[in-house]
Design brief:
CATH class of chain A: Mainly Beta
Oligomer: heterodimer
Number of domains of chain B: 1
Radius of gyration of chain B: 18 Å
CATH topology of chain A: Lipocalin
Helix content of chain A: 10-25%
CATH superfamily of chain A: Calycin beta-barrel core domain
Largest sheet of chain B: 5 strands, mixed, barrel
Structural class of chain B: mainly beta
CATH superfamily of chain B: Nucleic acid-binding proteins
Largest sheet of chain A: 5 strands, antiparallel
Strand order of the largest sheet of chain A: 5-6-7-8-9
Number of strands of chain B: 6
Order of helices and strands of chain A: HEHEEEEEEEEH
Number of helices of chain B: 3
Structural class of chain A: alpha+beta
CATH architecture of chain A: Beta Barrel
Strand content of chain B: 35-45%
Order of helices and strands of chain B: HHEEEHEEE
Largest interface: A-B, 68 and 48 residues
CATH class of chain B: Mainly Beta
Distance between the termini of chain B: 46 Å
Radius of gyration of chain A: 20 Å
Shape of chain A: globular
Number of helices of chain A: 3
CATH architecture of chain B: Beta Barrel
Number of domains of chain A: 1
Number of strands of chain A: 9
Strand content of chain A: 15-25%
Shape of chain B: globular
Chain lengths: 246, 139
């Protein structure tokens, strides 16, 4: 026979588990349902309308990790400083890479199935088809690419995405945030009860960094938004403007 | 079932860590424009490019010497504008508009548009605020 405190504890645990289930949407197989249109920020998530009113939000229940400076090795730090914003690959409409793509001020849609998760980004028409594979096994024929190769597994309620196979042409975040082909990114997508996703990305690159670097974002659902076409090169005068400045 | 209020109370920060976003979505605003001083231009729209990665519209306005300058006004990408309620049909060739904007650092006749006042007096934002604090002469 259980004692009263133990019984209360068991009831509390049971209630908490029910509460978790009730507060986030789940798929038929019980996983958090990440599907939908999300955005990491920008233009106040479309509240900056005619009168300049910006949307405001309650504090998130699960804030993302605080971003620290990138821990570069000395040579890499020096090299990083040789770049200006005119060198930004995205200025030329090139793919933003991971994790930077998540910070672009444009929406993306997550389409989740039991076997794979697809992310379709408005920015630069990027897409990722991410197989769910508990061993996080990448193909053995990878050649370096802008967005790398992604595989995922569920860690409890968090979707963990392992990304490797990058080229060395993207930036991690701001101006000059270089990396090597040894870049390895581990992302976590955690759906929260306040209808946000806490996104974090842990970046390792032993050739360039002294230790792992973590960044993150709080993803929200921009209202009345669908992912649309963004043909960046269409009228891209920015390279010319920025090169005049350089 | 209640959202855990306790967690909310414990959290002080607002969460957007990736806040150092390129303000014009695609390139560095601060590198290209004088981000702390606004200018106001009133003139006639001569051309509209509702294009990516940024829209441009062109406005004929007289400078202090009475010479007509054709200003190129850059704004957000079309999708972004549409989502804030600024549509392609809002910019009509021949309309007289007033634009508050930031001048290009290279002294060209390019502007980063901020607020547009249309012929009926209504106002919409074409692009971002440049400085950390909203300029006092923005209206």
């Amino acid at each position: 026979m259980t004692t009263r405190p133990l019984r209360y504890f068991a009831i509390a645990v049971f209630s908490a588990s029910l509460g978790l289930a009730a507060t986030i949407p789940r798929t038929a197989d019980g996983k958090p349902n990440l599907s939908g249109v999300w955005q990491g920020g920008g233009v106040s998530l479309y509240g900056d309308a005619a009168d300049g009113t910006q949307r405001t939000y309650a504090a998130p229940v699960n804030p993302p990790p605080k971003r620290e400076p990138i821990p570069y090795q000395a040579w890499a730090e020096a090299k990083s400083k040789t770049f200006t914003s005119a060198d930004d690959p995205t200025l030329r409409c090139l793919l933003a890479g991971v994790p930077r793509i998540t910070s672009m001020p444009m929406p993306f849609e997550i389409i989740q199935t039991p076997k794979e998760v697809v992310i379709a980004y408005e920015s630069f028409h990027a897409f990722r088809i991410i197989p769910i594979n508990d061993k996080l096994q990448h193909p053995n024929d990878l050649v370096p690419t802008w967005m790398g190769d992604s595989v995922a597994r569920w860690d409890g309620d968090a979707l963990v995405v392992d990304v490797t196979g990058f080229n060395d042409k993207t930036w991690l975040s701001g101006t000059g945030s270089i990396h090597s082909e040894g870049l390895h990114v581990v992302e976590r997508f955690q759906l929260n009860s306040d209808d946000t996703i806490t996104y974090s990305a842990t970046v390792t690159d032993p050739k360039v960094l002294t230790k792992a670097w973590t960044t993150g974002a709080l993803l929200r659902r921009p209202p009345n938004t669908r992912v649309e076409e963004y043909e960046c090169i269409e009228n891209n005068q920015d390279v010319q403007h920025m090169e005049v400045k350089k | 079932m209640k959202i855990p209020i306790r967690n909310r109370l414990l959290i002080a920060c607002s969460g957007l860590i990736l806040s150092a976003l390129p303000v014009l979505a695609h390139h560095s605003f601060a590198a290209e424009y004088e981000s702390k001083s606004l200018v106001t231009v009133t003139g006639v729209i001569t051309k509209v490019e509702w294009t990516n990665p940024h829209i441009y519209f062109y406005v004929d306005a007289k400078d202090a010497s009475g010479n007509v300058v054709n200003w190129a006004v850059e704004g957000y990408p079309p999708n972004t504008l549409k989502r804030t309620g600024f549509t392609r049909d809002d910019l009509k060739i021949g309309d007289t508009v007033t634009v508050t904007a930031y001048k290009a650092k290279d002294s060209s006749s390019r502007l980063a548009g901020r607020e547009v006042t249309f012929p009926d007096g209504s106002k919409k934002f074409a692009g971002p605020a440049g400085g950390a604090a909203p300029p006092t002469d923005a209206k």
